[in-house]
Amino acid sequence: MQITERKDNDIVIYSIKGDIDINSSPQVRESFEKLVNEKAMKIVINLAEVSYIDSSGLATLVEMLKKTRGYGGKIRLSNLAAKVRSLFEITKLEKLFDIYDTEEQVCADFK
Description:
Elements: E1 2-8, E2 11-17, H1 25-38, E3 42-49, H2 55-70, E4 74-78, H3 82-90, E5 98-100, H4 103-110
Helix pairs in contact: 1-2
């Protein structure tokens, strides 16, 4: 799994490549902890290259969402593959997360 970070003004964009599962969740958590410690206010997680997320991956994303909301920040998801989006719908997590079709839509909405 690979995580890349870039910034668009005050928006931090994380792009994840690979599965988010029991083996990679600690890496995702560690990466996001840095943003939480910096109190990043606007975070986009681009999941375009994620084809699978297991329960530990979902738990990691929920944990980061709660921590970010705790200090007033926002996390938004973009570019979910059909299978991943379906998982969010089945688990009702689409009600918890703001999900966008494209990264551009998220960034425009943040501004």
